[in-house]
Amino acid sequence: MHRYAMFATLPLLSGPSYAADAVNHITNDKVVQLSLLLELKPLDKDAAIVRAVLLDWEDKSKDVVDVVCPGLFKSLLDKSTPYQPILFSQFVIGSAASQIAAPSTKGQLMPQQLAGMRSMLHVYSSLRALDSKVSLPELDNYAAHDADGTLEQVLQPLVERECKPHS
Known about the structure:
The protein is mostly helical. The chain has one domain. Helix 2 packs parallel to helix 4 and helix 6 crosses helix 7. The longest helix has 22 residues. It is globular and about 35 Å long.
């Protein structure tokens, strides 16, 4: 997803409730925009509703194929991890949104995992800005690799190992 697109979505946040529109008519063209809004404002008063609607849309959509590989973020498997549901769900939403933005990546494992991780890291960054006590070393490590341009190289072997069916 492109960061410049976030600025185009900011005026939507000034309206009375972006959740009302999201709940009424989720269409593919709104998915990317709403995902970006959640990245920017993960604790907004309407964020939980938008998140739930997007997850429901993702579950029913035939336009996306999401694979969650829990081994990529072991700290989020612990439900007591701060903001675990928000971070985990954003991985799914971000992956789905990337496939809508770039339909040629549908079903491609590495682009999905990378997009989901980056979306989750954006939410993590937003959460840290709101709550200085939030610290997940695993996500801090991924964020550092994203910042220095090595996230894909770090994730590649993990995706190959963790995302394959175990027999």
